[in-house]
Amino acid sequence: MHVFMKRLIFLVGAVLVLLLASFTYHRLALQREKASLKPMGQMVSVNGHDMSVFVKGDGPQTLVFLSGPYIILSHSMASLETLLWQEKYPSEVKAIIGLDWALPESYSHLTMHPQLLRLARWGSQLGLLRYLPKSLYVPNDNLSSSDRRLYQRIAYRQILSKAMLNESLSVKKNAKKVASSIDSQIPTLLMVSNGEGTSFSQEEWRQYATSFSKDQKNIEVTFYDAPHYLYHYRTKEVTEKIEEFIKKTTE
């Protein structure tokens, strides 16, 4: 028993040292990588938060140009923000493109694991993502080497940030607050995956989209035999379909 306890204490100590080393390296790397993640434009303060805007010229007056209405393109959980926006400001939305939306109905059947999410956040904070295969979070082989490095650095900094964790923990409640349909005057394209990576089967995942779009003539649904981040796997097809839809919508 005495030998066992010694080995256990040594093992726990070794793990703690490795985690501390990983955390230290991660924090130093974040500082080193920060320069390459400088936002485009100029940072301005809005309600106590920083926003990146494109600024040109000078003078005593500030002119803000807004070109609307907009075409909203969103993925997965961002369906909720899109549905809320088109419900509150329909005149500002020209069209909507949903990249494999996680539709409100799906959240009523989603099994949440809050403790696992919190544990994953701790792992992210310790920098453990840096030691996982890059294909797990940068699956797109079409990216240039510089874009892949940028994608990685954003992932190291943002995956399971405090904001992402809070959004994930609140998503079931938020899904009940948004509209379950889209304004009939807004052309909409839903691009739906095979469900891989969503925790739902292909049949279940696609049924959510079919059910949501039922009796809504302004919604076009297309299916792809690709995982949840379908734009990484079917980049050319997805791009061409989006361009075709935008052209048809804006003619």
Write the layout of secondary structure elements.
Blueprint: H1 2-33, E1 42-46, E2 49-53, E3 70-75, H2 79-88, E4 93-99, H3 104-107, H4 114-125, H5 145-158, H6 162-175, E5 188-192, H7 202-213, E6 219-223, H8 230-233, H9 235-250
Parallel strand pairs: 3-4, 4-5, 5-6
Antiparallel strand pairs: 1-2
Helix pairs in contact: 4-6
Question: Could you please describe the fold and organization of this structure?
Answer:
- The structure is a single chain.
- The protein is of the alpha/beta class.
- The chain has 9 helices and 6 strands.
- The longest helix is centred in the first third of the chain and has 32 residues, at 2-33.
Rounded to the nearest angstrom, the radius of gyration is 22 Å
Order of helices and strands: HEEEHEHHHHEHEHH
Q: Percent of residues in helical segments?
A: 40-55%
> Per the principal axes of the C-alpha atoms, what is the gross shape?
globular
Total count of strands? 6
Derived from helix and strand composition plus strand pairing, the structural class reads: alpha/beta
Q: What fraction of residues sit in β-strands?
A: 5-15%
Contiguous helical run count: 9
Give the averaged pLDDT, no decimals.
88
Identify the strand order in the major beta sheet. Answer: 3-4-5-6
In the predicted model, the low-confidence regions spanning at least 5 consecutive residues are none
**How many angstroms separate the termini?**
79 Å
Described by strand count, sense and barrel closure, the largest sheet is:
4 strands, parallel
